[in-house]
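Continuing from the previous page of notes. For each protein in this section, the sequence appears first, followed by its structure tokens. Read the first protein now.
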Amino acid sequence: MCWFRKKKKKIINFSHRFNVGDSVNYRYKDELNPGLIYDINQTEDGKVTYDIQVGGECPVIIYNIEEDRIFLRRY
């Protein structure tokens, strides 16, 4: 028996500025922090929010960061 299931692909039918996997800086509690876009969501009133992964070895996911609080990371 195989206990692993295939993950369902999420279909996104709304416009957004960033893609999953983009390196970004985001403003959280009045500080600018680096992270990666982990997931894209849309609220009931039409706003786009992002889930951002922070850290490497023991990552943390920050949920529901609004699109206007995120900036592309420049190297």
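Done with the first. The second protein uses the same format. Note its length before scrolling.
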Amino acid sequence: MKSLVHTTILVITAILAISCVHDSFDTAMLDDTTPRLVVSGKTVQQYSNADGQLGYNASKSEFRVSNDTMSEYFVLTCSDAPASEGRKIKCDVCWTAPGGKQKRTGVNFRVEHIEGDTIWLWSSSESIGAVVKVLQ
């Protein structure tokens, strides 16, 4: 009986730990400067040198990542330029997914890190991370 109680407690603890994994920024994202969109811990879109396109519109604070045919993409449109670490901004994000186009509006992001032209953003409320590039 005692081992059943211990096993049950371990299982419940593991489930709770797994459910909280994506509530905070994963610093492992900083190891890669490849533009990408991560939702709930899974990369849903990522730039490819072979067939990818990057876009940036400074006046709209908009970042775009797509393949050559635009069949796979993500677009991040921010309320303000993500110009400094720690800054909080609202963004609209849309992307293609196997089940169709996905969209979130008014998502609160925090600028986690800026290195050169690369910016890492994280939304703890939506578990969405983005790596984008400012193009000159």
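What the second structure shows: The longest strand covers residues 100-115. DSSP finds one helix and nine strands in the chain. We return to this in next week's lecture.
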